[in-house]
Amino acid sequence: MTKEIVILIIIQLAIWTFLVMRITVYIKGEKLKWKERRDFEKKVKDACTIQTNNGVMVQSQGEKKIANWLYDHDIEFLYDTPMKVPGRKYPLRPDFYLKKHKTVIEFFGLIDDPNYDNKRTRKIGTYWQMNLRILSIYPKDLDKIDTKLSKLIKE
C-alpha cells in the first residue's frame, strides 16, 4: 500500500469514529430526555390524590371544586392533559380544557411567588396566541365559583 492510501484509511476511520461517538452522545441525550419526561409524568400523576365526583383524580381542593362544578353542570372537560403547542418543544398542561367551548380553566393556587407568577403569565400568553379563552381561578374565587363558571353554561 502506498502512503497516501494508508493516510486516507486513517482519516476515514477517524471520521467514522467521530460519527459513532456523536450518534452515541445523541442517543444518550434522547434517553435522558425521555427519562426526565417520564419522571415528570409520574410526579404529576403521584400528586393527584384527591378524587372528584366523577372519579377524576386532581391535585388540590380548588381543582376538586372546579371539577365537581363542571361535572354537576354536564360540562365535559379534560383534566391535566398535555396539549401540543406549535413552536414549543414541550406541551402545556392546562388544569382543565373544555374542547367544546375552546376554553382553558387554570386554577392558580399560589399567591405572591415570583417564579409561579412568571410561569402563569407565560402560560396565559400562550393560550391567547392559540386563540383559546382562559378562565383564571384564584383561591379567593372558590367561594363564588358558581358566578365565575356559570358564563360557560350561557354559551
How does this model look, in words?
The protein is α+β, with helices and mostly antiparallel strands. The chain folds into 2 domains: 1-47; 51-152, Endonuclease, Chain A. The protein is built from 4 helices and 6 strands; from the N terminus they run H-E-E-H-E-E-E-H-E-H. A 4-stranded mixed beta sheet has the order 3-4-5-6, sandwiched between helices. A two-stranded antiparallel sheet has the order 1-2. The chain starts with a helix and ends in a 6-residue tail after the last helix.
Provide a compact summary of the structure.
This protein has 4 helices and 6 strands; from the N terminus they run αββαβββαβα. The protein is an alpha+beta fold. It folds into 2 domains: 1-47; 51-152, VSR Endonuclease (Endonuclease, Chain A, 3-Layer(aba) Sandwich).
Mean pLDDT, rounded to whole units? 86
Distance between the termini: 83 Å
Number of strands: 6
Shape: elongated
What is the makeup of the main sheet?
A: 4 strands, mixed
Uncertain parts: none
- What is the overall number of helices? 4
Please identify the top-level CATH class of the largest domain: Alpha Beta
- Strand adjacency order, main sheet: 3-4-5-6
**What is the fold-level CATH name, i.e. the topology of the largest domain?**
Endonuclease, Chain A
CATH superfamily of the largest domain: VSR Endonuclease
Helix content: 40-55%
Proportion of residues in extended strands: 5-15%
How many structural domains?
Answer: 2
